[in-house]
Every structure is written in C-alpha cells, then in structure tokens.
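ok so dumb question maybe but i'm new to this and my supervisor (M.) told me to 'just get the structure for NAD(P)/FAD-dependent oxidoreductase' and walked off. so i did the thing. is this what she meant?? sequence i used:
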Amino acid sequence: MSTKRPKLVVIGNGMAGMRTVEELLQLAPGLYDITVFGAEPYGNYNRILLSMMLSGEKSADEIMLHAPPWYAERGIDLHLGDPVVRIDRRRRRVHSSKGVERGYDRLLIATGSRPVVLPLPGSDLPGVIGFRSIDDVEHMLQAAQTCRRAVVIGGGLLGIEAANGLSRRGMQVTLVHRSDVLLNQQIDVQASGMLIRNLQQRGLSLRLNTETASFYGNGRVEGVTFADGSRIDADLVVMAVGVRPDAALAKASGLYCEHGIVVDDTLQTYDPHVYAVGECVQHRRATFGLVAPAWEQALVCASHLARFGHRRYRASRTATKLKVTGIDLYSAGDFIGGAGTEDLVLRDPRRGIYKRLVLKGRQVVGAVLYGDIGDGGWYFDLIQSATDITAMRDRLLFGKHYCQPAADAGAAA
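this is what came out, is it supposed to look like this??
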C-alpha cells in the first residue's frame, strides 16, 4: 500500500536553496515531493562567478550549477521566471505571480538578498543598475558594445570585480568609494595600497573618499554628481554598495523578521513548518553575504528536513578572496587585531607580496595576504582549529612547507 509523500516547496532557485535540496536528496532521496519556484528564467547558477562572466572568462553555460534537466531527472517540479508572491501560512499554500498555487507540508525560503540602491536623485534613470544577476551582466555587456564611460560605485569585492570586468570589455571605468581604503571590510591599509596601485596600472580611474550625491541625464543616465560639487560623465552606472536580506515576502506572511528572516540553530523560523537559508536569514543577530555560511546552513537545514535532527548551525569565521585575474588577495578571521594581539608582517615590494598574520597568544586569529595567497587555506585552518603555533612561529610567514615539520613535531608531542 503506497503512502502519500509530504510536500516540500522551495521559494528561491539560488545557491543556498538548491544546495539544501542537494543535501536533502542525498540524505533522504524520495522523502518529499519537491516544488521549486525561481524568480529568474534560468537554472541555478554560481553567482560568485558573475564577475568572470562579465570579464569574458566564463560563459553563462559555464557558471550554471543545475540546468532544467537536472530537476526533471529528480522529479522536481520547477517553475522558472515565476516568483512566489504570497504565502498563506494558515492554509500552508504558496501563490506565484503566474497564478500557480501549491500546498506544502514544509516550506523552505531561500530568497537571497537584494542590492542596496542609494536613495539619490536620478537613481531610477535607465542605465543605473546593480550587479547581482545574469540579467545585470547581460545589461553591462550590451552597454559595453555601445557606450564608452562607466562609473562603478562601491569599493568592495563586487565593485572592484565589476570595474575590472567593464575595463576588460573596453570601457573607461571610474571606481568611486566613500573611504580611502578599498575593501575596507576585508583587508588592511597596506594591502589596500598595493591593490590601488594594481588597479591604476590596469587603467582604472579611482575616486576615493568621495560621496555620491546624484545622477543626471535626460531619459537615460549621463553622469554622476558628487558631494563636493564635481561631476563625471557616464553612460553606465553600476551600484555595488552592498546587499540586504530579501525578507519582504516572509514578513508579509507574518513570519518574524528583523534585518532578515529570524531562524534558530536548526534554520527553522518561528513557524515550525517553515525553514530559511542563505542571505535572507538572520541567525543570532548576524546576516550573511558569503557562500561558506550558506553551505553550512544548507547541510544543517537538510538534516532537519530529512528528519535527522542532530545538527546545529553555528556561524564560523569566513575567508574572502578577490576574483580578479592577476590580482591575488585573501583575508580571513580577525585581520584588524587590537588589544592583546600582535602582528607578523612580511613585505616584498619588488615581487608585490605582502603578508600579515594577527596573533593572539599562541594562536593565529587573522590573516591578510596579497600577491601570494597559496597558503591562505592553511592559515585559515590554523585560525579555525585554534592551533598552537609556538613551535613554528619564526617560520609562520613563509608558509606551510617551511612549518610542517614543526607542526608535525608539535602534534607528536
């Protein structure tokens, strides 16, 4: 006698949601009838590689993680280009923009994040865009064929990657940042200085310590005005000033939200039938913008959906790597340091190498690497495991190869 399978509906066809589905299918294949709604008309793709698509190093097909046949082969009911617009939690049903209605026994919300749009005059002009999707990249590629000048606002990871990609496509690019330190959330002043020189050598113009005031144009963006009264002409403006959790749908359904959808250590919301993962969530007052936490959340959430409820999510330290060809930059942990910490620093200006390790007692707590990042993963492991580095302290800056004998000896002792 067959039994009816419970229904799982997934809102969001991005990396976090689909990683959860992947893990679930491994843990409990066939447990659920699964329906997935995606706002974009594409399969699940690697958003991290959008900058490489922009620069021409990858095609749209090459960044695809799960094309539509993958879903069909696993019996997943896939709805592309059809976002869910309403969740009826009382009846446990979702309603899509195209009128599709599906019931659920468990609901997984993975709506990701939305780019921050500066609320400035002219921000709604055509030609002012974000950098978050394949459509955004396609828009930029079209602009690069007919336009000459671009302004990228935001000196974080996405802004630098967008500026580099547009420059490689032949545009004259000005990168605008409100601080005098690029990647000020990820690296220190010394590494930023080396990065600035590298970007300038690539032909990028930089406007640091500069506040954007407005955008001007007649029917389309034609330039940017700054707080000091200066202006610069532009045919394309890319805003890369951060993202916010996309929690609007969850909030409208009555789920408890603060900055994001509030979840517990099992990734369950205040409604026991509803889970959430990825950039849309808030866990212990923290929100997330990197892929590593999303992967960890996916594994925990999948185990609970699979009814193996033994895992708990604990936010861990993360590492950052810039994805610009020819620029090797890596940071991890508490690279700022402060009271009770000390720095180990290696500088080799001729070879363009800078390494800074932040120590606290006998442990590495942070790292910034520029020009030589081969040991980044090893340093990150030292941070994560709180390894006692006393035996290899004097060789630590030279990397794993020079430290391994000391590390092995310490482990044996």
